[in-house]
Write the structure tokens for this entry.
Amino acid sequence: MARYTGPRTRIARKFGEAIFGADKVLSKKNYPPGQHGNSRKRKTSEYGIQLREKQKVKYTYGVLERQFRNLFEKASRSKGITGEVLLQLLEGRLDNMVYRLGIAPTRAAARQLVSHRHITVDGSVVNIPSYSVKPGQVVGVREKSKSLEVVADALSGFNHSKYPWIEWDQSLMSGKLLHLPERADIPENIKEQLIVELYSK
């Protein structure tokens, strides 16, 4: 499956949540998309609920199936609670870090900035969105890219204090990953235990 590039509101309506950020259409049409979206009342199986949660996480973080499975396997081999470790691995992706730092308005825009070589890690350009940022590493904007309008607009008025695991330096336009986030600090509405149960079958 290729990465989804269609209407984001359609996916948000499918899950009934603004998983891509504020959505005006979702607030007006808070029912699934399609001809029968407003009248469909089907009971979802346990497997269906688990699969839906996995799909929601994949869309939220912009991860493909093989990448997601690899991350889950890595999480299951790690110490700690598998579901929480999985979310920490997703949060540690470079494209997600760029989004959390406020350098880009969405994860899709963050992925594009990384791919187009506008982002550095510890001073070196990294153009791999799935790059895993380690605690202590510094993510910043490349010197010649600091004047980009999309970056300036995204950073304008952004509240960096809402993510306690990140330290932002406005003068350098860079942020340091202090530590991996605790589950309570990750704001996404995700029931990670359902994903663990799905892969445990």
Summary: Strands lie at 119-121, 124-125, 138-141, 166-169, 174-177. The chain has two domains: 8-81, 93-179. The mean pLDDT is 86.
